[in-house]
Design a protein that fits this description.
The chain is mostly helical and 180 residues long. It has helices at 3-15, 29-33, 56-64, 74-95, 102-126, 137-152, 154-161, 164-175, and strands at 44-46, 52-54.
Length: 180
């Protein structure tokens, strides 16, 4: 669990739609995704009709469209997308360097991490969730990106403790009945 697949799972939960996880192994991963996603990556979803949907945001739209998990109001959707893409950028920045690349790690910790955590802290200081008063797909992305960094990086964990609105959002989201 974790990363993009966990964000997708949370959208299914917020949308109140059933899903079935299918897990593979590192040894079977290439075979599992071949023919299902031209990008050769996870996650992807196979619908009951056999349609394959790939790429996280497309899967989230498929799962959440028509439910509160995907805002119908254009202004709320725009706010949500602003948060979702910022969370995605955070996730990419953290995963964009090798574990032994100390220069890139220091750049991430000194520049990018404060940039993204600061932005999310500012956003969540002004509203409970990405689009307003109810959680949506964007909150799933932001929550997982922040948690992913904080679980794996001491500087991120410490910085999260210094961002009260962002930490409060994490607690609020995790306590939401459908997620908890």
């Amino acid at each position: 669990h974790g990363g993009r697949a966990e964000s997708v799972r949370m959208v299914y939960v917020l949308a109140g739609k059933p899903y079935v996880d299918v897990f593979g192994t590192f040894e079977t991963a290439r075979a599992d995704v071949t023919g299902k996603n031209p990008y050769l990556q996870f996650p992807f979803v196979e619908t009951p009709s056999g349609e394959i949907i790939y790429q996280t945001l497309a899967i989230m739209h498929h799962a959440g469209h028509g439910t509160p998990a995907w805002p119908a109001d254009p202004a709320a959707l725009t706010r949500a997308l602003s948060v979702a893409l910022g969370g995605y950028d955070l996730y990419q920045a953290f995963g964009g360097f090798a574990a032994d690349d100390l220069v890139a790690k220091q750049k991430f910790e000194g520049r990018r991490l404060p940039q993204y955590f600061g932005a999310l802290d500012e956003i969540y200081a002004g509203r409970d969730f990405a689009a307003g008063s109810a959680p949506c797909f964007a909150d799933c992305i932001a929550r997982e990106a922040v948690a992913w960094c904080a679980r794996r990086n001491d500087v991120a964990r410490a910085l999260l403790g210094q961002k009260p609105a962002l930490a409060a959002f994490q607690r609020r989201f995790d306590a939401f009945p459908a997620i908890a």
